[in-house]
Design a protein that fits this description.
Blueprint (H helix, E strand, L loop, with lengths): L6 H13 L2 H8 L3 H15 L4 E3 L4 E3 L1 H24 L8 E7 L1 H8 L3 H7 L3 E7 L6 H4 L3 E4 L9 E8 L1 E5 L1 H7 L13 E4 L4 E6 L2 E6 L5 E2 L2 H9 L4 E5 H10 L3 E2 L6 E2 L2 E7 L7 H14 L2
Parallel strand pairs: 3-4, 3-5, 8-11, 8-12
Antiparallel strand pairs: 1-2, 5-15, 6-15, 7-12, 7-13, 9-10, 9-14
Length: 295
């Protein structure tokens, strides 16, 4: 059945499901909405079944569409991998790479590598989602997620890219006003900027993990919110070194050494479906990202 199946039509089907509309799929594939509609109709005609329920604003999979989706994805991925083997290496990676990263990490770490990545790979397109939520990669048709958090067990591949070292820091104005803490116990007497609903900071004290409860007058559901509040002198914050490197170097923030206690490290992970691990587009993206994280 799949011997002569049009991979462009399959891509349209996959991206229509991921985007939630034909118009969204058309934008991702850089084609017109009419072309996307025709491709999907042709695929349904070839298969002899309706794959999607369509309305003026959205689409949803039929039972047949739900059954066919993983097969369509496998066919497209196999075609991309096979094409990559035959394309001369000097042409670089090709295809559409869909990645999801947290907003702050995406802006400060991922975005700076995008121009060179696109210049070195003329056949590559990138759709980058900046979101602090956890995305279901399979249902959204994503190739990779970059995550900085303990990983849940799943059927996805998790590849460690780098350590995510964190530093306790504050603006000079705050330290002039409130003084500098020297011991972890002194944090309870300071304004600490936390993520909403997370009033504990993890430290390693005498070789053992310890959660320290902190309080403050400002919290945010966004790392960017805590970062800006810290730079503004609102209080102390525990932030990743990649997030505050510039501010530490230019003096807008000061790192605070609590002598023996150090912040627990978390790792930066690339998480992706098993079928994606051989794709050159994923390989070049992760390679460039690892280079950036070594700086």
């Amino acid at each position: 059945m799949t011997g002569g199946m049009d991979t462009d039509a399959l891509k349209t089907f996959i991206q229509t499901h991921a985007a939630g509309s034909l118009a969204g799929a058309a934008r991702r594939l850089k084609i017109t909405s009419m072309a996307a509609t025709r491709r999907l109709a042709a695929l349904e005609a070839e298969l002899g079944v309706r794959l999607m329920h369509r309305s003026t604003r959205s689409v949803s999979l039929t039972p047949e569409g739900e059954t066919f989706l993983p097969y369509a994805t496998s066919i497209v991925e196999a075609a991309e991998a096979g094409r990559a083997v035959l394309v001369p290496s000097e042409q670089g990676a090709t295809g559409l790479l869909r990645a999801t990263v947290s907003a702050a990490f995406g802006r400060k770490v991922v975005m700076p590598i995008i121009p060179a990545l696109l210049a070195e790979n003329p056949g590559l397109s990138i759709d980058l989602e900046l979101s602090d939520g956890v995305t279901d990669l399979i249902s959204r048709g994503m190739d990779v997620a970059i995550r900085i958090a303990p990983l849940r067990d799943s059927g996805l591949i998790a590849r460690k890219l780098a350590e995510n070292r964190r530093v306790l820091c504050a603006a000079p104005a705050y330290l002039d006003r409130r003084g500098r803490p020297w011991r972890v116990e002194e944090l309870t007497h300071h304004d600490c900027i936390t993520l909403s609903g997370a009033p504990y900071w993890p430290f390693v004290v005498a070789g053992r993990n310890r959660l320290v409860r902190v309080v403050g007058r400002f919290s945010s559901n966004s790392v960017e919110g805590t970062h800006e509040a810290c730079v503004g002198g609102v209080g102390l914050a525990l932030l990743s070194t990649w997030d505050v490197a510039t501010e530490l170097s230019d003096g807008r923030l000061v790192s605070i050494d609590l002598n023996e206690p150090v912040a627990q490290e978390r790792a930066i992970w690339a998480v992706y479906p098993k079928a994606r691990h051989t794709l050159p587009k994923l390989h070049v993206f992760l390679l460039r990202l690892q280079e950036r994280l070594r700086i």
